[in-house]
Amino acid sequence: MKQQSIDEMYMSRCIQIAANGLGTTYPNPFVGSVIVHNNKIIGEGFTSEYGGPHAEVNAINSVKNPELLKESTLYVTLEPCAHFGKTPPCADLIIKKEIKRVVIGTLDPFSKVNGQGYLRLLKNGVDVTLNILENECLELNKRFLTFHQKKRPYIILKWAQTEDGYMGRDDIQKWITNQYSKQLVHKWRTEEEAILVGKNTALIDNPQLNSRLWNGKNPLRIAIDKNLAIPRSFHLFDQSQPTVIFNSLEDVEEENLFLKKIDFSEKIIPQVIDYLYQKNIQSLIIEGGSDTIQYFIETNLWDEARILSSDTIWNEGILAPRIKGTRIGKYRFLNDELNIFENRIQTEES
Ligand SMILES: NC(=O)C1=CN([C@@H]2O[C@H](COP(=O)(O)OP(=O)(O)OC[C@H]3O[C@@H](n4cnc5c(N)ncnc54)[C@H](OP(=O)(O)O)[C@@H]3O)[C@@H](O)[C@H]2O)C=CC1
Ligand SMILES: Nc1c(N[C@@H]2O[C@H](COP(=O)(O)O)[C@@H](O)[C@H]2O)[nH]c(=O)[nH]c1=O
Ligand SMILES: [Zn+2]
To answer: Where along this sequence does the record place binding of substrate (predicted)?
Structure first.
């Protein structure tokens, strides 16, 4: 096999194991690394929960015979770090262990790294190959990269709709999708840092917006409720997980409840997005309702849409949003279908 395809083969293994860290490493990216000696994987690692060792450290520590490191290649999905954060620089450890060759999926745009890790390795005589499976590695790090490059969270729109395109009723919550889709949605909730709904959804559904059907973290809950109409007895106020209510009336900070006053005479979404950026929130899933999702579509502030469709027919109700995107995935779970779209419309911010 050619060296390029050998590199791709080991990088794809890095990508596979990196995904084990999704949702647990914020604000760090989730990274995968493997160490190869004489065409054999002798060590593997992915990013630990926030504050713990990075992927390269875990991979190096997993090698049984450290003597082999000097003759090995380290593969990693993202450029090794060069700064002291919660842990010392991975680039320094690689140099100290005298690892001969490093293959990097993509450079790290984070201002404290931004090519510094790559340069440090080069200056210390490490043979470095860049941009192996770059697109796949960019996709893996889409939340982290969007946050640092566009200065806003990665935004996922998610909704469920009937076969004839309805998603809700004016007065009562009516469930559309099956239990398998529901569990998947809870898994998604563990993967994103924040979840947002509009006022009508909060009032009609009294949603919990937690991840009770999957193991993992609950996201930060967010609602947009200009006049603070959501009753205090509703789940959103139960303080079971951090919750922000954007409103026009009050600023309040309690342990897990934040009422945040914003200017409703100005555009709302940029204020919400900016608040999340300031709070270091790298990803946001919008779970409805129709109007709220439509506002994000109209301002072209979305990256991905996940639309779950069932085979039920309602003939009436609140219509689901319409979206123009490029389909990147189609899946079926019994009578439900999931279509995933990507936003390729460029705006000034991109
Ligand atoms: N099938 C599904 O996946 C889902 C279905 N639903 C269903 O959808 C229905 C509710 O949807 P819908 O009626 O469209 O309402 P929304 O839940 O989208 O709430 C809309 C309200 O939220 C506030 N709001 C949200 N975004 C903004 C913004 N950018 N600027 C200003 N105000 C904003 C406004 O409140 P104000 O009026 O105070 O200004 C607005 O009227 C319910 O029936 C619910 O069951 C809900 C979620 C998902
Ligand atoms: N009706 C509907 C969804 N509705 C979404 O789920 C929220 C309820 O969350 P929770 O209270 O945590 O169970 C609700 O407010 C709305 O955002 N989701 C779906 O996958 N399929 C469905 O058919
Ligand atoms: Zn590192």
So the answer is: 189, 209, 212, 287
